[in-house]
Amino acid sequence: MSDDLIPLEQPAVAPRLPGKVMLRATADDAIDALAADLLLQSIQCVRSLSDFHLALSGGSTPLPLYRRLMYDPAYRQLPWDRSHMWVVDERRVPFDDERSNFRQLDDLIGQHSGIPEANVHPMMALEPDADRRYEAELLRVLSRRSKGQDRLDFVVLGMGNDAHTASLFPHSPALFPSADANTRLVRINSGPRVTPPDRVTMTFDLLNAARFVAILVLGSNKRDTLARVSKAYEENAASSDFPVEEFPILGVRPHAGDLRWYLDHDACPRE
């Protein structure tokens, strides 16, 4: 086939998703958009609430975002000295394991941002009651705020190729009510439906109480998953009965906060 007959790739189409879709041409542009919103939210929270509670996910996708926050002069106004850093989820491995999300976050942000050591909150994931401990710490620290303001201010999430987010995998135990029937903010997630090793993760009850949730999805390897998620959302939008067990990312729906998806063109479906 001659070069002039090679079909051009169709343009990216912003998928229909819950919340607001922030579609940008490149991954860098999408990261810039997320970073700008994070900066704005942090400043507003410190002005109105005196501090800022930020929950971060691990993994490869948000690493460029975290680096940008550290080296780009545009984000030097981030009030790290008044911020708390929480971990969205953690593998049940030691902190010196390269798979540890906290190791990644602490190396990039905890050690270089100027955030007070007491405001950095790792999950003690190897403890048998790691979920209960982290939930208790969240409640203790957030209770310093007035009622109604005792919630996370900004959460950064990603999406796996199986549509999981945090460590909430399709059909995994943490998607379902806890055995004690109480609302749980943090759960241990284990079993054959969880990509090993076992995890400790924030639950939808905690994530959906946040003031602002950002979902960062980049690259062509996420295109098929994003298309399936968008289709599932469209097919069930009228009833709001989304197939969360199959597509956990659709369980992210803040009750009284903003939900924004930050996408690059490569991640988006084509017509």
What does this structure look like?
The chain is of the alpha/beta class and 271 residues long. It is built from six helices and ten strands. It has helices spanning 27-49, 63-71, 101-110, 130-142, 204-207, 223-236; strands at residues 20-24, 52-56, 83-87, 89-91, 120-121, 154-157, 186-189, 199-202, 212-217, 258-264. β2, α2 (63-71) and β3 form a beta-alpha-beta unit.
Helix count equals 6
- Sheet with the most strands: spatial strand order: 1-10-9-6-2-3-5
Q: Provide the domain count.
A: 1
Briefly note the structural class of the backbone: alpha/beta
Helical proportion, percent range: 25-40%
Contiguous uncertain segments of 5+ residues: none
Please tell me how large the radius of gyration is.
19 Å
**Count of extended strands:** 10
CATH class: Alpha Beta
Form type: globular
Measured by DSSP, the beta-strand proportion falls in 15-25%
In round numbers, the mean pLDDT is 94
The major β-sheet equals: 7 strands, parallel
